[in-house]
Amino acid sequence: MATTTTYALHVDWNNDGDFGDTGEVITDRVLSVKFERGRDTTSQLTGRSIAGRLTAILNNQSNDYSPFNTSSPLTGLLLPGRPVRFVIGSGSSFTYTFPFDFTDTALWSGFLESIKPTVVPGQVRTVELVAVGALAMINRKKVQVGTQTNQRTDQLIDTILDSAGWPAGDRDLEVGQTTVKSYWNSGGSALAAIREVEETEAGFIYEKRDGSIKFEDRTFRMTDGKATTSFLTLSDHSSTSYPYESIRQLDPLPSIFNDFRANVRIVSTGSLATLWTHPETGSDSPAIKAGESNSYYAQYPPPTEGIFASAIAGQVAVAAWTTPAATTDFTVNAAADGSGTNLTSSINVAVAKLSNSMKITLTNTSSTDGFITLLKARGTTVISSDPVLMVAEDATSQTAYLKRTYPNFPQWLPTSQEAQQWVNARLSIFKDPLPQLTIGWTATKNANTLAAALDLDVSMRVTVVAENNAGLGIDEDFFVEAIRHSISRGNTLHRVSMDLSPVSASSGFFSLGVSTLGENTRLFY
Asked: How many whole angstroms separate alpha carbon 474 and alpha carbon 251?
């Protein structure tokens, strides 16, 4: 039985965790809306999932969405970071009938980025509402992760998201296949840190339609049902159930690489040592008033040093900080030169230990002002071995397409054996050209095309036939790497386009514990 379904745009203006308050269903104001999620390119190798984006043009004749209009009922609520979602099954307008029940299913979820009103004399006043996905929010978070040992890639991503303050309920992480012996992060964006782990796993991180973070391990597309069975066939026959209207074959050359490299470093833990000393001593000793607290950040290595470089050869990170001990690590005296009453026993210490820094807070509980005449931080360091470079090249591909070196070296591979497997597997896939497509159709053409448009998602498997009217000689399965929707209220037109990568890039492998013997030809890991 057919089900009547509606589209709706929601904004949680008061940021209370629901979309049920007055003015939070804004569907009636929508003139047009477009949104997207997925990779920035179709390549499974070079493509990275970027933050999703939604842009809606709203009728602003009421001036409700003008941030400086103090008469607006939304005054003080038109703020960035407010949750936004585009759903099926709630609200009004944009009504269609099709044979699936998608009640209250989110097609896109994210956070308000900007609101920009436009006024043109003689025309309806409008406002552009822009929202961005979860990855944009995570990218703004700076993280430090202390040394982690023997953790799977999914566990590391979990730890990074914890450090970024991302809710535990808003993540869906597959079990990683690689266990990293030692990992740390000394600062930078949470997204950059996740990208390093994603590259090490040869996996994929992206936003789901409900706004949560999804991590696929490298075997996901060989095992998950939505990736192993084709959802539908998009054909260049206009008489088929799912005909497309446009297809574009992308240039495969930028995705060809025939020289892969990976560095491996073995790390160990050094002996307990002084890693930082406060430089102000003697007459320059910092004062600490009676009853007050001072905080200092010990840093190691110095913040200008890179991950595998340090002023101390081979020592690249802190394995563990030691809580400062009175007299050994800090001394407080009544005089700056160290004379007078020793107040050290009246000093309380509190610490916050991060990756490359430790926040030390000293509180003077005495009734006498003092001076910090000694303050240092001790800890154990991670000591890195000499790097081992693993390489895989293909001479035939280099002759045909010139030498193309993949620029992103994985940083956290645990052994030279796994590094060799990593470069070998990558080379076997990407040394030759692979078809990459962008395909589009009108979703509202009929019930089937609309249902497919609403159900298709990143990593789903579809079949594309483009060997008849299209003349591309293609009849094979592809993965959805990115999906874009554009909906116009005026003529209720809903257009969909998708970027597709070939399933052949993830097939033909024999993977221990995953594949059936005799059915796959290339060794995976």
From this structure: 15
Grouping H, G, I as helix, E, B as strand and the rest as coil, residue 425 is helix
Distance CA 384, CA 382 (A): 6
With 0-12 / 13-18 / 19 or more C-beta atoms within 10 angstroms meaning exposed / middle / buried, residue 304 is: exposed
Spell out the residues 6+ positions from residue 504 whose beta carbon is closer than 8 angstroms to its own: 434, 476
Buried b (16+ CB within 10 A) or exposed e, 417-449: ebbbbbbbbbbbbbbeebbbbbbbbbbbeeebb
246: tokens are: 């446009």
Nearest to 314 by CA among 268, 355, 271: 268
Residue 121 burial (10 A CB sphere; 0-12, 13-18, 19+): exposed
Give the relative orientation of helices 190-201 and 153-163 as an angle to the nearest 10 degrees.
180
CB 12 within 8 A of CB 446: no
- Residue 251 pairs in a beta bridge with none
Which tens digits make up the pLDDT trace of 65-104? 999 999 999 999 999 999 999 988 644 444 444 333 444 4
- Residue 220: C-alpha distances to residues 78, 126, 177, 459, 472 (Å): 40, 44, 10, 9, 29
Helix (H, G, I), strand (E, B) or coil at 360: strand
**At 272, which amino acid appears?**
L
Q: 474 pairs with which residues across the strands?
A: 466
CB 18 within 8 A of CB 89: no
Q: Which uninterrupted H or E stretch holds 494?
A: strand 493-502
In angstroms, the Cα distances linking 9 to 4, 24, 90, 158, 454 are 17, 8, 9, 30, 15
Measured in degrees and rounded to the nearest 5, phi and psi for residue 208 equal: -85, 170
Can you say whether the dihedral through the CA atoms of 96, 97, 103, 109 is positive or negative?
Answer: negative
For residue 166, give both structure tokens: 């991302």
Determine how β-strand 493-502 pairs with β-strand 437-442: antiparallel
Q: Quick check: 464 and 439 in contact, CB under 8 A?
A: yes
First-to-last CA distance in the chain? Answer: 46
Separation of alpha carbons 295 and 102, rounded Å: 54
Q: What is the pLDDT of residues 291-349, one digit of tens each?
A: 999 999 999 886 554 444 433 445 578 999 999 999 999 999 999 998 889 999 999 99
Question: Residue 275 corresponds to which tokens in the numbers above?
Answer: 């890693």
Calculate mean pLDDT across residues 177-199: 93
What SS3 class is residue 331?
strand
Beta-sheet pairing, 171-173 with 213-216: parallel
pTM: 0.88
State the Cα–Cα distance between residues 188 and 164, nearest whole angstrom: 11
